[in-house]
Amino acid sequence: MENFDLNILSGFRLLDVIDIFLVAIIIYYIYSLIKGTIAVNILIGVGLFYGIYLVVKQMEMRLLTEIFGGFISVGSIALIVVFQQEIRRFLIHIGKNISLRRKKFLWSFIGTKKTAQVDHGEQLKPIIDACRSMSKSRTGALLVFSRYFDEEYYQSSGEYIDAPVSKRLLESIFFKNSPLHDGAVVIVDFRIMTASSVLPISDSEDLPPQFGLRHRAAIGVTEVSEAIAVIVSEETGEISLAKDGNINMNLSPEELDKILKEEL
After folding, report:
1. Separation of alpha carbons 259 and 117, rounded Å
2. C-alpha pair distances (Å), 48 with each of 22, 42, 65, 158
3. Residues near 13 by Cβ (< 8 Å), separated by ≥ 6?
4. d(CA 88, CA 98)
5. CB–CB of 247/215 below 8 Å?
6. What b/e sequence results for 92-126 when a residue is b if at least 16 CB atoms lie within 10 Å of its CB, and e otherwise?
7. Rounded CA separation 218/35 (Å)
8. Do the Cβ atoms of 188 and 155 come closer than 8 Å?
9. How many CB atoms lie under 10 A from the CB of residue 246?
10. Is 16 exposed, middle or buried (0-12, 13-18, 19+ CB in 10 A)?
11. How far is residue 47 from each of residues 36, 59, 71, 109, 156, measured CA to CA in Å?
C-alpha cells in the first residue's frame, strides 16, 4: 500500500495541481451562473441520460446502446444550443472582469475618478429627478443603461429615438397613456436611443412571486449583457436597480444616484 501511494505522488506534477485548480474555478463559475435557474434541471437531466447510457452499455443491451449512443454523439452540439444563454453569460462575465481590470490599470495613469464622477453627476441629474418624480406618482418605468447600442437587438424591438436624456422626455415616455410606456428605455452615453424595447425575461426560479414583468425583464437583460437596469414599480413606487442578474430593492433617489455614479 505504501509503495502504491508513493507511485501516485511521484507521478503528480505541479501542472496537475494547476489543472485541477483551473477546472475547479470553471465549475464554480458555471455553477454560480446556472444556480437557481431552469438550467440546473436540464443539467441534471443530461447527467441522468448519460448515466443510463453507461448502464445499458455495460449490460450490453445493444439496441438501447445504439439509441442512446446516437444522442451522445451529437451531445456537444445539443448542449451548446440548450445552454447558449448560460454560455453567453459566462463569456460576458469573463470579458467584463478583464475589462474592469484594464480600466483600473488605465485609471492609475490618466485623470482621477472623482472628476469623471462630477461630470456624470450633471448628466445623471435629469434621470434621478425623473425617477424621483415617477416614484412619487407611482408611474411604472424601466431604464436600461447599456455600454453600447446593439441596433439589431434593441431597435428591432422598440422605437428609435436618439435624443438627449431629459426629465420631461422620460416622464412623457412612461406616462400611462403614452403609446411608448410599455417596455424599456435604452440609454447609451446618456442619450435615449430607443423606447418601448422588449427585453429577455429572466427564467430564474428564485425570484419572489410578486415580481412583475418589469423586474423580471430588468434581471433578464442584466443576465445576458453588461447593462444596468433601473425599475420604478407601478404598484408601490419603489425604485430598484438590477446588475449581473441581481437586484437591489427599495432604493432612495440619493442611493440610486450614488450607485449609478459608481457603475457608470
Report:
1. 11
2. 25, 10, 15, 42
3. none
4. 16
5. yes
6. bbeeeeeeeeeeeeeeeeeeeeeeeeeebeebbeb
7. 18
8. no
9. 10
10. exposed
11. 18, 19, 13, 49, 38
* Cell numbers representing residue 196 in the block: 418601448
Encode pLDDT of 67-122 as tens digits: 888 777 776 676 777 666 666 666 665 665 555 555 555 555 555 545 444 456 78
For the stretch 206-237, pLDDT in tens is 788 888 889 999 998 887 777 899 999 999 99
In one-letter notation, the amino acid at residue 240 is S
Cell numbers representing residue 177 in the block: 397613456
- What is the 8-class DSSP label of residue 157? G
For the chain, what percent of residues have pLDDT higher than 70? 72
Which class for 162: exposed (0-12), middle (13-18), buried (19 or more C-beta within 10 A)?
exposed
C-alpha cell at 87: 454560455
Q: How much is the pTM? A: 0.61
170 vs 127: CA distance, rounded Å: 8
